[in-house]
Amino acid sequence: MNRFLRKNGLVIAGGTIQGLGMGLFLFPHAIPSGGAGGLAVLLNHFFHIHMGFGLWLMNFSMLVVGIKYLGNRFAIWTMLAISVTSYAIYIFQNLIPTPLGNVWIDLLIGSVLLGTGVGILMRERVSNGGVGVIALVIATHKNILPGKPLFWINFCIFLLTAFIISWEILIQAFISQWISTKMVDVICGLNFSQSYTLGWRKK
C-alpha cells in the first residue's frame, strides 16, 4: 500500500509539474511541448483532422505500443499521468491570471518544469504520453536514460513539421526540447536511497 501511495503521489506530482510548465510558460508562446503535437499538426495539414482529436489519436496509438512492451499497469498509470497533466494545464491557463512574460525566460522556466515533470514520471516507469511512450520503450530495452531517445524522436518530428508547415518557432522548440530532455536525464539519474537505473522490473 505504501508503494502504491508513493507512486500515486509521484505520478500526480509529475503530471502537475509538467502541466505547470506547459500551461503557464510554453503554450502561451505557442512553443510545442513534444512530438505528438507535431504529428497532430501534420494530420491536420494533410487530412484536416481536428488538432484535439489528432493529439488524442497519437497518444492512444503510442499507448497501445506501450501496453505491448511495458504491460497493462504502465497503460493505467500513463492514463492517470495524461489526465493529471491535461487538468493541470486547464487549471493553470484558465484559473490563474498570468501576464505574458519574456519568451526566453518563460522558455527556460517552462522547459525545466516540463523536463522535471516528465523525469519524475519516467523514473516511476510511467510515460507522459505521446512519443514519451516510444522513448520509454527504447530506454527500457537498451537500459539507457530516456532523455536522449526522447530528444531525437522529437527533433525528427519537429524538423519534418517545420519543413512541411512552417519554420517559425522551430529554434525555440528545439531549445525547449534540449533543456527538458536534459532535465529528464538529470531526474532519472538521481540516486536516493539506492542505486537507480532504467532496468525496470517487469510487472
Account of the 3D structure:
- With 203 residues, the protein is mostly helical.
- It has one domain.
- Helix content is 75%, strand content 0%.
- It is built from 8 helices and no strands.
- It has helices at 2-26, 35-47, 51-70, 72-94, 103-123, 131-142, 147-164, 170-189.
- Helix 3 runs parallel beside helix 6 (131-142), helix 5 packs parallel to helix 8 and helix 7 packs antiparallel against helix 8.
- It is globular and about 45 Å long.
- The two termini are 16 Å apart.
| Rg value | 16 Å
- Biggest β-sheet, characterized? none
Termini separation: 16 Å
Q: Report the uncertain regions.
A: 193-203
Strand tally: 0
Average pLDDT across residues? 82
Number of helices: 8
Return the domain count.
1
**Binned strand content:** under 5%
Summarize the structure.
Helices cover 75% and strands 0% of the residues. It contains 8 helices and no strands.
Task: List its salient traits.
single chain; 203 residues; mainly alpha; 8 helices; 75% helix; 0% strand; disordered C terminus
Topology diagram in text:
Blueprint: H1 2-26, H2 35-47, H3 51-70, H4 72-94, H5 103-123, H6 131-142, H7 147-164, H8 170-189
Helix pairs in contact: 1-4, 1-5, 2-3, 2-7, 3-4, 3-6, 5-8, 6-7, 7-8
